[in-house]
Amino acid sequence: MTAVVPRGLYALTDAGLIGEDRLIPAVAAAIDGGAVMLQYRDKSGDAGKRLWEAQDLAHLCRALRVPLIINDDVELALAVGAAGVHLGRDDGDVGQARATLGTDAIIGVSCYDRLELALAAQQAGADYVAFGAFFSSSVKPDAVRATPELLRQTRAQLRVPVVAIGGITADNGALLVEAGADLLAVISDVFGHSDIRAAAQRISALFDKV
To answer: Does a structural domain hold residue 140?
Structure first.
């Protein structure tokens, strides 16, 4: 592990919840509400749109000193000077991403409900690992389910920060923080509200209580 990963709310964007004209103010509001890291997630396949949105977010996040992570696209992360990349099952390996993005990049890896994947990612040099979905998720309704017990198991075996994702809200997130999650990755319960700043504050506050 080479990069410092903060503890707290990890806000993930979603084009279905945030229109193009609202992306920057929505993300600024989430950061103002306490988000400590941001992931740009866009599955549209529109390369031009993804590039200019990621560039705008990179400028904003640098100004506000919040790491910007690009979902599933190492080359886009490199092009916009993002802080790092998040890799899913089919998005290449940690070593290749590290070679492209450098030693200071934050590289996260999805590990679903499998501790052995997290151990392998840690060994390969990942800066954080992510488990989930922990709850029913409208974004990924068919995602495999992880349990809070998995988070408890990781405490004795992982040195890298652990992200919990999937259907997390201000009402159920405390359970995961108590179980050992260092970050809560949230989409809908941040960007699905009209008052994004207040929504982010509610989730960020969970880390102060636990």
So the answer is: yes
Nearest 5°: the CA angle 128, 132, 135 is: 140
Active site residue 140: yes
- Whether residue 1 is contained in a domain is answered as no
Number of domains in the chain: 1
Domain around 145? 8-209
Lookup result for tokens 């988000």: 35
Mean pLDDT, the chain cut into blocks of 10 residues (210 residues total): 85 91 97 98 90 98 98 97 94 92 97 96 97 86 88 93 97 97 98 97 93
Which is the catalytic residue, given 7, 62, 114, 140? Answer: 140
Residue 102 within a domain: yes
Q: How far apart are CA 63 and CA 144, in angstroms?
A: 36
Residue 43 appears among annotated catalytic residues: no
pTM above 0.90?
yes
71: Cβ–Cβ under 8 A, 6 or more apart, which residues? 12, 39, 40, 41, 42, 85, 86, 88
List CB contacts of 65: < 8 A, sequence separation 6 or more: none
Residue 25 lies in a domain: yes
Of the candidates 50, 98, 110, 188, the residue annotated as catalytic is 110
